Amino acid sequence: MTGLPTDALRVGETLPPLVLPPLTRATLALYAGGSGDHIPLHIDSDFAKAAGHRDVFMHGMLGVAYLVRMITQWVPQERLRDIHVRFSAITYPGEQLTAAGVVSAIAPDGAVALELTLRNAQGEVKIAGGATVVPQAR
Amino acid sequence: MIDRAIIGREWPPFEVEIEKGRLTLLAKAIGETRPIYTDEAAARAAGYRSIVAPPTFAFCLQADSPVGSGYLTDVGIPITDVLHGEQSYTFHDVMCAGDRVRVTRRVVDVYDKKGGALEFVAFESEVRHADSGALVAVGRQVMIWRHR
Fold first, then answer.
1. Residues 6+ apart with CB under 8 A from B5
2. Would an 8 Å CB–CB cutoff place A69 in contact with chain B?
3. What is the band of A118 on the pLDDT scale with cuts at 50, 70, 90?
4. ipTM above 0.95, yes or no
5. Separation of alpha carbons B140 and B120, rounded Å
6. Does A7 contact chain B (CB < 8 Å)?
7. Which of B34, B56, B94 sits opposite A61 (nearest CB)?
8. pLDDT tens digits, residue range B32-84?
9. What's the gap in Å between the CA of B135 and the closest CA on chain A?
10. Is residue A26's pLDDT more than 90?
11. What is the pTM of this model?
């Protein structure tokens, strides 16, 4: 074991949450540039409205990046073995998101299963899923 | 209706040299300020080859495909009506700036729900170190065509 915080974990424990500032169009523009995802639904309000959305909306993978930031502020990223998520609701500019995680199982080899959620301030789940964190870096 | 015959379709693999500037911009975009993700000297001091790519960079690499987002229209999903449904990754190694990686993508499943109002295409992708062939990440991505 590495002396990192998973050593004395119990099922049901929560990870320190990641509380994000309200989503801005500037963040979506930056993420389009940084990620290379230039799909206009996320950065062009006219395009998004013509496609039937009320506005541009967040790239799903930006939400996953927030969930991963929450995990890697807790353990180094070498210890993140896998992550799986389902995108359940669209996030629009102005919404304030919080990434949360809870320990759902601990395997005999020390692998820790996490349940993950990304919710807005009203508690609506935007992304739900899970991840596995291993006790030793690969 | 999406043609089930696309199951098994693969796009040509492509290689990407991971640039420092790309990673620092991505870090800024996702609000990641820790120095291993933004500063080469700090990353080296922490034992990495260079600036570290956050795990979800594995997905960003797909955007570097010569077809860009054209893989969606290739399978018959209009760009106006696409939603990301699910995503998973298994990670095998960490990527750093300066690494050269090879990226693949193929269609592994097509299905529909709600009487065809929602159609789903599942893709699998692999990222490997270009020189050694060692696996970096395996991803599964489900994209939805939301019929209007």
1. none
2. yes
3. very high
4. yes
5. 13
6. no
7. B56
8. 999 999 999 999 999 999 999 999 999 999 999 999 899 999 999 999 999 99
9. 13
10. yes
11. 0.96
For residues A43 and A24, the answer to whether their CB atoms sit within 8 Å is no
Name the residue facing B55 among A47, A80, A86 (closest C-beta).
A80
Residue B110 backbone phi and psi in degrees, to 5: -140, 130
Say whether B53 sits in a helix, a strand or coil. Answer: coil
Tokens of A132: 């596995």
Domain boundaries, chain A: 18-133
H helix count then E strand count, chain A: 3, 5
Q: In terms of CATH, what superfamily is A18-133?
A: Hotdog Thioesterase (3.10.129.10)
- Determine the Cα–Cα distance for residues A12 and A6; give it in Å rounded to an integer: 13
User: What's the rounded Cα separation, in Å, for the pair A56 and A83?
Assistant: 26
Q: What is the pLDDT of residues A49-59, one digit of tens each?
A: 999 999 999 99
Measured between beta carbons, which residues in chain B are less than 8 angstroms from residue A113? none
Tell me which residue has tokens 């090879």. Answer: B102
Interface mutation vs chain A, best among B19, B72, B77, B91, most A CBs within 10 Å: B91
To test the contact with chain B by mutation, choose from A83, A98, A132 the residue with the greatest count of B C-beta atoms within 10 A, namely A83
Among B61, B88, B90, the residue to mutate for chain A (most A Cβ within 10 A) = B88
Residue with tokens 């690494």: B99
